[in-house]
């Protein structure tokens, strides 16, 4: 029994990664959306609003920061890894009701990237675009500068895989998970908040856990 237990512990991570990869690939080709109802690794569910999502390798990935900044810049994954990294461990809460407790994320504080690009005085908000070609999100500049908002490169102490929005995603820890845009490719400083994909469909722009979208979930702290 001890041997079987040890084998299960050793096999669990590869099996979990395999399940995540299978569900992600299936969802890319699933016109019914039923695969989105299935939990994958760690209780997460795979969501995509695009018909399919291209894969980006560590060498091909790019993140563009532009708009109302003094120094527009395009970062490679290696350049993002060279910034000081911040690790957060918080509950992840989806507005549909599921929660994954104590999930580690690691990456660059968004505010650090904004400072490096030089935010112009007239900037008031940040718009995020994704390489799925469809999804977008927004934060106010004040929200974007919070210490618990990351451009995340790692999740659950491993590099972000494609299924979870890798190689790079946004992670807005105190907000419902739809704010944490997957497959991040663009950060644009704007003079006003531009509602994102779900906000244009009725979701709250300010999506604080427990204080928005008519829900009373325990806040993410």
Residue-averaged pLDDT: 86
Helix content: 10-25%
Number of strands: 10
Task: Give the overall silhouette.
Answer: globular
- Uncertain segments are 4-39
Hey, roughly how much beta strand do the residues contain? Answer: 25-35%
Report how far the terminal alpha carbons are from each other.
38 Å
**Largest β sheet strand count, sense and barrel closure:** 5 strands, mixed
Write down the Rg. Answer: 17 Å
Could you spell the SSE succession in H and E letters?
HEEHEEHEEHEEEE
What's the tally of helices?
A: 4
Q: In what order do the strands lie side by side in the largest sheet?
A: 2-1-10-5-6
Structural class, by secondary structure, is: alpha+beta
Keywords:
five-stranded antiparallel beta sheet; alpha+beta; about 220 residues; globular
Structural overview:
By secondary structure, the chain is α+β, with helices and mostly antiparallel strands. Helix content is 20%, strand content 27%. The chain contains four helices and ten strands, in the order H-E-E-H-E-E-H-E-E-H-E-E-E-E. The longest helix has 27 residues. About 16% of the residues have low confidence.
């Amino acid at each position: 029994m001890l041997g079987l237990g040890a084998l299960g512990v050793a096999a669990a991570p590869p099996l979990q990664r395999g399940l995540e990869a299978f569900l992600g690939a299936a969802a890319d080709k699933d016109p019914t959306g039923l695969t989105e109802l299935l939990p994958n690794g760690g209780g997460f569910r795979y969501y995509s609003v695009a018909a399919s999502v291209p894969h980006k390798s560590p060498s091909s990935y790019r993140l563009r920061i532009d708009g109302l900044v003094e120094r527009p810049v395009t970062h490679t994954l290696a350049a993002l890894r060279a910034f000081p990294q911040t690790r957060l461990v918080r509950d992840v809460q989806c507005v549909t009701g599921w929660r994954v407790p104590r999930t580690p994320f690691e990456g660059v504080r968004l505010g650090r990237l904004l400072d490096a690009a030089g935010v112009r005085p007239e900037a008031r908000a940040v718009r995020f675009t994704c390489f799925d070609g469809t999804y977008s999100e927004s934060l106010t500049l004040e929200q974007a500068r919070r210490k618990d908002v990351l451009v995340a490169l790692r999740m659950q102490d491993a590099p972000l895989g494609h299924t979870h929005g890798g190689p790079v995603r946004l992670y807005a820890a105190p907000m419902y998970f739809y704010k944490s845009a997957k497959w991040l490719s663009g950060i644009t400083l704007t003079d006003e908040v531009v509602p994102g994909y779900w906000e244009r469909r009725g979701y709250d722009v300010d999506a604080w856990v427990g204080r928005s979208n008519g829900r009373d979930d325990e806040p993410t702290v």
